[in-house]
Amino acid sequence: MKQLYWHGLSALLLGAGFGSPAWAQTQDAKAPYSLGSAQTLVRQLEAQTAVAELQRATPSVTLRVSATQVFTGKVNYRQDLSATGEYVVGEIQNAVGSSFLLRIEGEKVQGHIILRKTREAYEYSADARGNVLVQPVDINKVICIDYNKPVGYESPTLKTDNTAGRAAVVSLQSYPGARGCIMLDFDGQYVAGTPWNNGNPISAAPAGMTDAAIQEFWELVSEDFRPFSMNVTTDEAVFNSYPKTMRMRCIITPTNTAAPGAGGVAYLKSFNWNDDTPCWVFMTSPKAGGEAASHEVGHTLGLSHDGRLSPKEEYYDARTSAGNWAPIMGAGYYKPVTHWSRGEYASASQTQDDLAIMASATYNVGYRNDDHANGLSGATSLARNGTSVSGSGIIERTGDQDYFVFSTGGGTVNLSLNTVGRHGNLDIVGRLFNSGGGLVGTFDTQGSLSTSLSANLGAGTYYLQIDGTSYGNPVGEGYSDYASLGTFSISGTIPAPAAGGVATVYRDCNYTGAAVDLPVGDYTLAALQSRGILNEDISSLTVNSGYQVVLYENDSFSGGALTLTASNSCLVGNALGTGNWNDKATSVRVQPAASSFSVLLQAEAASVNSGMTAETTTDAGGGQNMGYVDAGDYLVWNGINFPTSGTYTIEYRVASPSGGTISSDLNAGAILFGNSAVPATGGWQTWTTVSRTVNVNAGTYNFGIYAQSGGWNINWVRISKAGNAARVAALAQASASVAPQLEIYPNPVTDQLQIRSERSLAGSEYQILDAWGKPVASGSAATGRLNVSGLQPGIYTLRLVVEGQVQPTKRFVK
Question: Which residues form the CBM6 domain (predicted)?
Answer without folding.
Answer: 599-720
